[in-house]
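B., you asked whether I could sanity-check this one before it goes into the benchmark set. Here's the sequence:
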Amino acid sequence: MATPSESIETSTKGAAAWSPDRTAFAPTDAIPEALILNATTVVDTKAGTDRGSVLVPWVDDSPAAFSDEAAYLNLQEPALSQTLIHTKKITQMIFLSSELYRENGGVNAQLMSDSSMRAVTKEANNALMSHTASETVPLTGLANTPGIIDGGNVTDKLDPIADVIAQIESNGGTAGIVVAHPLAWGKLRNLKSGKDLNSSLLGAGTEDMGKSLFGVPVVTSPAVAEDELVVIDPSAVPSAVSPVEVASSDQVLFHSDSIALRVIFRLGWAVMHPKRLGKVTVAKKATTTK
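And here's what the prediction gave me:
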């Protein structure tokens, strides 16, 4: 388990059942595989409140200009703006018998805690990439964000991916990460450099050349559609995350001699510049180049 970033001890007032011991972990330690930590720019790490939203101020760059010597400098009005980030919490609550929880020298408790961390990470990744906003969870997955670049289909060449990266740069951004479904990435790796050739467009097929496209790191995740990959400029997506809180209590289930284990993680994001994100569809049956 990760090193605690904050320890909150049981209150000395009132019944212990109302304030069970709990420990908070930094997300980078507890759930390092959460895409929100790499595919966005975290601007708030204390989102663990019930306020429900975070306001992020930002400035749209104003143009600079040449000026004559000793002349009055041209006054530029900065375009001040802000982005509203809604936050929601992801939770998991499980009940275990005291015997199961404490048996095996605490290993069982560690295994269950790790399992809960993985479940929270999976849900967080699915939400970030593919969630459809609703009244109760007003968060839109990056792949579903209106206005992002649609790079079209990859069939036998990687040109659509190169075009999306170039378009992001043309729009003032920098492609920093590609999130691809493992099956979509597999299809890309199956593309050959020529007809009747075994060499892959992504490098030698007998060696793992690392996951990257045109110098941009690739992360594979089932959080995106099976035939998609999403190119992201993390600076265009501010986000807010809370510490990952892990708590256990033997009081709430006192009558059944059981332990309650709870994990809570609050997160949220918003896209400031949709044109600095893009997605590409990998054809289900890619052909070889001729």
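One thing to flag: The first helix runs from residue 27 to 30. Otherwise nothing jumped out at me.
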